[in-house]
Amino acid sequence: MTGTGGQQPLDGPAGPAVPEPSGVDLARVALRAAKEQAKARGAAAAQKKQARRGGGLRSGARADGRDPMALGAAINRLITERGWETPAAVGGVMGRWPQIVGEDLAKHCVPLKFDDEPDARVLTVQCDSTAWATQLRLLAPRLVARLNEDLGHGTVRMIKVLGPGAPRRGYGPLRAPGSVGPGDTYG
After folding, report:
1. Is 80 exceeded by the pLDDT of residue 105?
2. Where is mean pLDDT largest: 3-17, 70-84, 163-177?
3. How far apart are CA 21 and CA 153, in angstroms?
């Protein structure tokens, strides 16, 4: 801090002295602040106006995610987003069962359900006679290969073949009062 006559130098520890704005400079600062406030008010008014018209951004001339889409494309997108590819594909197989296995086999064997657990992946099929159930059991490896060719490798691991369902057992009107069924006569 050397100087003459005890005055501080202009380049002191606080830096060069900045003259206070006056006149024209004050007017420029005030004008800049007023412009920024007006721009902010204009943006807020535009947002309110947009919200009254339906909100959100409008779609432009080019395609984007907000444009309407065809129903099939929307369903495919939903299936993909939810991870329903395998159940949807198997459902398609159940709808096309006669084309996949042939008309003769399809008349006598009907797909019931598909267990899509990763460790199971079993297609359950019920046949109307034991002869057709045996026939389907013999064809099962080729049918699994055909289904996996159609659906993707490893989609179906096994086909569970059920024989004809037994008729529902109706006891009829000749029933002893107090009996609990067919087992009550065996001691």
Report:
1. yes
2. 70-84
3. 78
| C-alpha–C-alpha distance, residues 131 and 164, integer Å | 10
User: CB-based contacts of 153: which residues, under 8 Å, 6+ apart?
Assistant: none
Q: Which residues, other chains included, contact 165 with Cβ-Cβ below 8 Å and sequence gap of 6+?
A: 126
The token pair at 118 is 């990763």
Q: Which of 17-26, 50-59, 88-97 has the lowest mean pLDDT?
A: 50-59
Closest alpha carbon to 97 in 124, 72, 75: 124
> Closest Cα to residue 107, out of 137, 129, 134?
129
Q: Which two tokens stand for residue 108?
A: 């006598």
Position of tokens 């065809």?
Answer: 70
Beta pairing class for 158-162 and 122-127: parallel
Could you count the other beta carbons within 10 Å of the beta carbon of residue 127? 20
- Whole-number Å distance between alpha carbons of 106 and 109: 5
